[in-house]
Amino acid sequence: MNIQRRSAYLLVLASALASLAPAVAFAHAVVYPKKSATGAYERYVLRVPNEKTVATTRVEIHFPDGMRITAFEDVPGWQLQVLTDSARRIVGAVWTGTLAPQRFVEFPFMAANPKAATQLVWPVYQTYAGNDRVDWTGAKGSKTPASVTSIAPVDSTAGAPATASGQWVQWIALILALVSLGLVLRPKDRLS
Description:
Number of strands: 14
Helix content: 10-25%
CATH superfamily: Uncharacterised protein YcnI-like PF07987, DUF1775
Strand content: 35-45%
CATH topology: Immunoglobulin-like
CATH class: Mainly Beta
Shape: extended
Strand order of the largest sheet: 6-7-4-10-11
Structural class: alpha+beta
Largest sheet: 5 strands, antiparallel
Radius of gyration: 22 Å
CATH architecture: Sandwich
Distance between the termini: 22 Å
Number of domains: 1
């Protein structure tokens, strides 16, 4: 393999790994999407991986103030208990079931976002067989961080929330991968 081809191959590989890095960084209980618009009705998904060697048996989430939860999607193999306050407002949810090690489960729900820009913090409590519990309530960068969603007004020129999206990293990785692929596949100059 010549040096140009090897360099292009390594560049493609590095680009692919860079695009996977965000997925690896969020290997905890996370609510998606990470950004949404003020006042919007949004389909959120709580993704919970099992990072231990025993089954996860219970997942509990407390909903941020200002959110109005409107519906839950059924998740096969899991039972849902909706938590309400004295005014019958939905303030949390508890799912019970069995999640084997090295697996993940997603719990979808619908909500109306707050009308003002804010940061929604999603406290999640994951219980394992034997009653060992992990509280995903810590600060960003901690061992057990709480998931956070940014709520911002829609930028009328772009049609997306007016916050720095971080998607530019994905676009750069895609462009680098395409350039690298072009270098690898281009015809070789032949000497006459």
